[in-house]
Prior knowledge:
This protein is α/β, with parallel strands linked by helices. 39% of the residues lie in helices and 15% in strands. The strands form two sheets. The chain has a five-stranded parallel beta sheet, with helices on both faces. A two-stranded antiparallel ribbon has the order 4-5. α5 packs across α7. The relative contact order is 0.17.
Amino acid sequence: MFQQSIHLIRSGARDLADLLLPPSCFSCGGEVSAHHEMCAPCWRALNFVTEPYCEVCGFPFEHGTASGPTLCAGCLRRTPNFDVARSALRYDGASRRLVLGLKYGDRTEGTRTFARWLARSAGPVIKGAEAVIPVPLHPFRLFRRRYNQAGLMAGALARELGCRFDARSLYRKIPTPSQGGLSRRQRFKNVRSAFDVRKARRQVISGSHVVLVDDVMTTGATVETCARVLKRAGAARVSVLTLTRVAEPMPWPT
């Protein structure tokens, strides 16, 4: 509830700023013709994830195969906890600027656009989704950062899809260190016990198709852990959507 209230206040402030300030590109800050738009050079620099990709985790392949749908090496070795994952953009210089601006620079005006990109990247795999859930921040970090970037995208995506926004069921119970600089194995160990579903909300999750939203998929450790606890709480299907992803196969740990 607190996060939703803060989001409404910030959204109102942004709408007021839109009336008073000239429109600017939400990537570089350059001049654009309307609010919530990107300038042409920033738009051209984006590298969207398109087919062919792994049918499960969405890892983009350089070349297609004649045999039709395929899985990446990691998903062939072990099926991940989530049912499917899709990402809008490859993580590179252009998309990194979007993520850092959204995460640390208060550049939240692109949230509505990001939600449309997420919906488009997911296509039919999220058909029938009942709730959109953001990867949560620990309350200490949320207090310092003032908003959860995944929560802003998840809220906008829920409105885009016409389904429930749920920022209450999944929570981060341990204030883990940043994943930056950690190896793949260290990342999985770092978040192994970090998340859970509130007992009072398990009935809401049980039997539902939920969409889990985050800003970046690097090793997949965070979304894997979140999907595991959502499935343990009874979720029938967990679809993962991230704004960006590192274009490396996911060797899920055994």
